[in-house]
């Protein structure tokens, strides 16, 4: 079975659009998301474009702040403070990675947790670890959770193996999978024998950005395989998973593109709607 992130996204986005229309018909302002991009990293330009288009399609206003590469930390913090104070801005997203002269953690700390639709602020990450409802869950983990829920894949007691322990996906995803009562293992660059873990996984999720890291012989028969990787190699987009080999063994698998990618953007729309509803209600 193919886990079709495009199709599931479309359904969820239709509901978001209807919910936004409900508010607009009652005279409320539009929801709005401020997107900040520092520099011209080509993949980031594509991601930011996709996010903004998706916002407009469901009736969320997107404000775009495209700052030059040499922007100073202080200038970025000033913009964030301004956006934090604006009542007509519900969400603030600073696209990562930032140029190396800008410390990411200082930027994330500056965003109001109430507007942190990426869910990266320690208050929101802490809520995720503490299983406290009401915070923002980072978009890719939330998107994966929604995709699994759509296909009625219950994680309770399942062996979930996550390959990749990054800040944006692997670490928050491990907390979310624990919240769903899975038994979670996280492999990373220092793991001695990744295959020892991956071959045991009921649900295998790879988020490394290493194209075709996961081969057929690393996957258990009948496993569910989620591919978070999106790497441009030449003019091709490759996932972390060697799809042709792994599809023969997996009971369900996400394609790249059209799997996790659209779900991440959908989760961002949901988080923005959540921020908006708190502001207008
Ligand atoms: N770069 C890659 N993924 C993400 C994400 O989910 N949010 C932000 N802000 N930057 C990213």
TrEMBL record:
Pathway: One-carbon metabolism; tetrahydrofolate interconversion
SUPFAM superfamilies (alphabetical): Aminoacid dehydrogenase-like, N-terminal domain (SSF53223), NAD(P)-binding Rossmann-fold domains (SSF51735)
Record-listed NADP(+) binding positions: 164-166, 189, 230
UniProt keywords, alphabetically: Amino-acid biosynthesis, Histidine biosynthesis, Hydrolase, Methionine biosynthesis, Multifunctional enzyme, NADP, One-carbon metabolism, Oxidoreductase, Purine biosynthesis
Domain annotation Tetrahydrofolate dehydrogenase/cyclohydrolase NAD(P)-binding: ranges: 138-279
Listed GO biological process terms: L-histidine biosynthetic process; methionine biosynthetic process; purine nucleotide biosynthetic process; tetrahydrofolate interconversion
Start and end residues of each Tetrahydrofolate dehydrogenase/cyclohydrolase catalytic domain: 3-118
Catalytic activity annotation: (6R)-5,10-methylene-5,6,7,8-tetrahydrofolate + NADP(+) = (6R)-5,10-methenyltetrahydrofolate + NADPH; (6R)-5,10-methenyltetrahydrofolate + H2O = (6R)-10-formyltetrahydrofolate + H(+)
MF GO annotations: methenyltetrahydrofolate cyclohydrolase activity; methylenetetrahydrofolate dehydrogenase (NADP+) activity
Entry-linked Gene3D superfamilies: Leucine Dehydrogenase, chain A, domain 1, NAD(P)-binding Rossmann-like Domain
Family per record: Belongs to the tetrahydrofolate dehydrogenase/cyclohydrolase family.
Oligomer status and interactors: Homodimer.
Role according to the record: Catalyzes the oxidation of 5,10-methylenetetrahydrofolate to 5,10-methenyltetrahydrofolate and then the hydrolysis of 5,10-methenyltetrahydrofolate to 10-formyltetrahydrofolate.
This protein's name: Bifunctional protein FolD
Gene encoding the protein: folD
